[in-house]
Design brief:
Peptidase_S1_PA_chymotrypsin; six-stranded mixed beta sheet; 6% helix; single chain; Serine protease; serine-type endopeptidase activity; Peptidase_S1_PA; elongated; mainly beta
Length: 211
């Protein structure tokens, strides 16, 4: 917009952390069926990776037991005066009206699990090692000149990756390591621990890109 005077006298909300299970969250927005602002309270019932309807990307999502009405997409989910998420729901004719989409960070590669014992032995993984096998790297990926096909990613930012591709998250919860990647800010750096040609490499520092 060319004129931002409508923002005068307003204050911005800070971003908060991912809420714990059974914590209360308030969703604010303007759903269909009325003109006034709508406020609804719910409890966090689940936090896990799910496929987003817009973009078909697998990312972390917070599920609450509150009924979010059609048209509420884009409204903030607030806890302790901090924004912990954004409500989204697929509704034809209402979503993707306009605006800039920044996207989420990605390593720009495909991987497969290493749960098979023979696979781990073939690629030189020691019994105490866990990780995932790199199966394809996007030519435009920032790690294209660092990693290669058949490398084993063992850890991300010091967090060990299980053979099924998951990492520990809070109290007895698990998410995929891709979710850790998507939480990064564009152009932020990270440390990868990788098994290359049967030898544990030194930690790699890879810049993130905004896809």
């Amino acid at each position: 917009m060319a004129n931002y005077t409508f923002l005068l006298g307003t204050s911005f909300l800070e971003l908060g952390d991912v809420p714990l299970l059974h914590e209360s969250v308030v969703v604010v927005g303007y759903p269909q069926g009325g003109n006034n602002i709508s406020v609804i309270k719910g409890v966090v019932s689940r936090v896990e990776s799910t496929q987003y309807l817009h973009g078909a990307t697998q990312l972390l999502a917070i599920q609450i037991d509150a009924v979010i009405n059609p048209g509420n997409s884009g409204g903030p989910a607030i806890m302790a005066n901090k924004v912990v998420g954004v409500a989204f729901q697929n509704l034809s004719g209402v979503e993707n009206i306009s605006g800039r989409y920044t996207g989420f960070c990605s390593l720009g590669l495909s991987w497969q699990t290493a749960e098979n014992v023979q696979l781990r032995m073939h690629f030189g993984m020691l019994p105490e090692m866990t990780g995932v096998l790199v199966s394809r790297i996007n030519p435009l990926s920032v790690v294209n000149t660092i990693l290669k096909k058949d490398d084993i990613i063992l850890a991300f930012d010091g967090v060990p990756i299980a053979n099924d591709g998951t990492v520990p998250f809070r109290n007895r919860e698990h998410i995929t390591f891709d979710d850790l990647v998507s939480m990064k800010k564009p152009n932020e750096t990270t440390l990868l621990r990788v098994l290359m040609d049967g030898i544990i490499s030194f930690p790699l520092q890879a810049a993130y890109w905004d896809k």
